[in-house]
Amino acid sequence: MSRNNILVLVEGEKLDVQLMKQLLSTYNIKGRIISYKTNIYALYNALSKDENLDILMHLRSREKDENKKQIFNEHYADKLLIFDLDPQDNSFSSERIREIATFFNNSAENGQLYINYPMIEAVKHVKYVPIDPHYIEYTVSLEELRAGEYKERVAAESVIKSIKTFFSDKGNCNAIIRQNLEKAWFMVGGAAELLPPNQAAILQSQLDKLSATACIAVLCTCIFYILDYNPQLIL
Hints:
- The protein has 235 residues and is an alpha/beta fold.
- The protein is built from eleven helices and seven strands.
- It is 43% helix and 13% strand.
C-alpha cells in the first residue's frame, strides 16, 4: 500500500538526513525530512510540557522561519521519528524510553519511533558487502559508548564509505534491510518474517541485554520503514 506526504523527523543534521533522503529516493517514496538537532529525551521532555502532546504543533512552535512553519500545518499520512537509543545519555532510563516508545507507536497518530541501536551509525557497521556474516554478533558496550568510541570503531571497520553511493543501489539497500531484519527477529526469539518485529519487542530485548551484560546489539531499525511502507519493495 503506497502513501503520500510523509514527515520524517531525524535526530541529527548529517548522516540521519543523508540516509533517509537516499532511502526514500531509492524506493521512490515521497517524504519531507526535518532535523530536530537533539535527542529523543529532549524532544519528549519538551513535548510532555504541552498538554496537547501534538508533535506537529510542537515542531511549529519551535520553528523561527515563518515560511517553514507551514510545513507543520500540513496533514501527513505517516510521521516517523528516527532517533538513537543513547543509553549513555544522562536522561536515559529503561522506564523513560519505554514510556517514549509507547507514546510514539503509530505513524498515523503521534508518530512511529524507530530507534537505532546504539545510534544511526549502526547502518554502516558492516565489514563485508552485500552481506556481513558476522553482523548478527555485533554488540557495543556501555563503557564504549560512554568513552565516545563507537563512531571511531564504525569508521575503522565499515566498508561503506559513502551513504549516497551505497544506498543509491537498491540491491545494497535490500541486503542491509534483510540483514537487520534477520538480526531483529533473532533478538526477539521469533522466526524471521518479511515484516519486522514490533518496535516495543525489539526495545525490550535490548533493555534486557543492557541490564544483563551492559551491552546492546548493534541494530538499525529506521530502515524498517521501507518494510512497513511496503514489504514488496525489497523482493
